Amino acid sequence: MNDRVMKRAIIYAWVVLFVSLILNLLGILDFTISVENERFVMICEFIDSHMWLKMVVACIINLFSSYFVLATLNDEKLLTKKQCLVYIPLLILKSIICWYNSIIAFIIDLVILLVITTIFNRKITRNIICVLIIIALQVLLMLIRNLLFGNFDDNNALISIIMQIDYVIMVFLMYSYNLLIKYKKEERRSN
């Protein structure tokens, strides 16, 4: 895939998010979730009835999306074993703490994203810019869904899974674009 296609995909995704935000602010777009797949709903209801399973699913989603964020921040295609040994326990700890205290979980997230990645890659400015982009993306997605001000009345697995899909797609686009830039730099060096 060439860099123009990847740049366009990222631009289109951000444009769709901003148009959705504008439509939402004007009252034209109302974000609602409606799932008619009975099996999916049944699985989500099963997850909701078992707190430990709900925590495991949330942790897996967190590990999956965080992997791409951390690989992007570290400017790596794959995280090293050493990085995984540091990040994975911290992410699991953050996932557990998140159920009890979201402020402490957010602080752990910032430590992981800014302090520990800077220890590995020595690029504090790049890390700060990436973290600000991620925070902007999360705020934008929450604004679109009218969730910014703690409107989390419906806290179930179905909602959580669906809410993460667009975030994971955007993070994966950022990761893919970062890889594309890295390969282009390596090509230039080899020529």
Give a short summary of the structure.
The chain is mainly alpha-helical and 191 residues long. It has helices spanning 3-25, 38-48, 51-73, 81-98, 102-121, 124-144, 157-190.
Average pLDDT rating: 79
The low-pLDDT segments are: none
Strand percentage lies at under 5%
Q: Note the total helix count.
A: 7
Number-wise, the strands total 0
Helix content: over 70%
How would you describe the overall organization of this protein?
With 191 residues, the protein is mainly α. The protein contains seven helices and no strands. Helix 1 runs antiparallel to helix 7. It starts with a helix and ends with a helix. 15% of the residues are buried.
Topology at a glance:
Blueprint: H1 3-25, H2 38-48, H3 51-73, H4 81-98, H5 102-121, H6 124-144, H7 157-190
Give the key terms.
79% helix; globular; 191 residues; mainly alpha; 7 helices; single chain
